[in-house]
Amino acid sequence: MSDVLINWFVTNLGGKVGKELILFIISMVPILELRGGLLAAGPAFLNIPMWRAIPVGIIGNLLPIPFILLLITKIFDWMKGTKRLKPVVEKLEKKAMSQSANIEKYEFWGLVAFVGIPLPGTGAWTGALIAALLGIRFRKAFPAIVIGVCLAACIMTIISYGIVGGIFG
Question: Rg of the chain's alpha carbons, rounded to an integer?
Fold first, then answer.
């Protein structure tokens, strides 16, 4: 699924905007986030030098996070007041909270691990949503998410530029 989305962004934005902007946009998108951004940045797609791709991907992934941490519960409360959006919000909350056990138990380090280990359903967006729903304060949640995103950047750089780069580069 993520490779289809990455291909869509690269195909539809390629030649129209710079490679770094494509990476930045992919890194901001839920589901893809930094993981998809660094895969797209690697030799198999955009071939952006690693030293440029890492900070662009990290910044792109982190940009929405303060807004999620500070505003999502207010937005969800408003959305729950509407007949049409209430089921969507309840489904999102249920899905996020189903993955919250380790974050709730270990808080800071649980959030770091959840965001940092690149598995399906994890990442900065979901980590921020869970942190907000659990009521974890911004000053604790945001640094944990930053560390997690940096950990994910290390792992994904090895995968994108090492393993995949070795195959396609």
Answer: 16
The three state secondary structure string of the chain is: CHHHHHHHHHHHHECCECHHHHHHHHHHCCCCHHHHHHHHHCCCCCCCCHHHHHHHHHHHHHCCHHHHHHHHHHHHHHHHCCCCCHHHHHHHHHHHHCCCHHHHHHCHHHHHHHHHCCCCCCCHHHHHHHHHHHCCCHHHHHHHHHHHHHHHHHHHHHHHHHHHHHHHC
Question: Using CA of residue 94, residue 98, residue 99, residue 100, what is the dihedral sign?
Answer: positive
Which residues in the chain show pLDDT less than 70? Answer: 1, 164-169
**Residue-range definition of the domain harbouring residue 53:** 2-62+157-168
Taking the C-alpha atoms of residue 59 and residue 64, their distance in angstroms, rounded to an integer, is 9
pLDDT digits (tens, 9 = 90+) for 117-145: 988 889 999 999 999 999 999 999 999 99
pTM: 0.91
What is the number of structural domains in the chain?
2
User: How far is residue 24's CA from residue 33's CA, in Å, rounded to a whole number?
Assistant: 9
- Classify residue 107 as left (phi > 0), alpha (psi -120 to 50) or beta: left
Regarding whether 89 and 115 lie in a shared domain, the answer is: yes
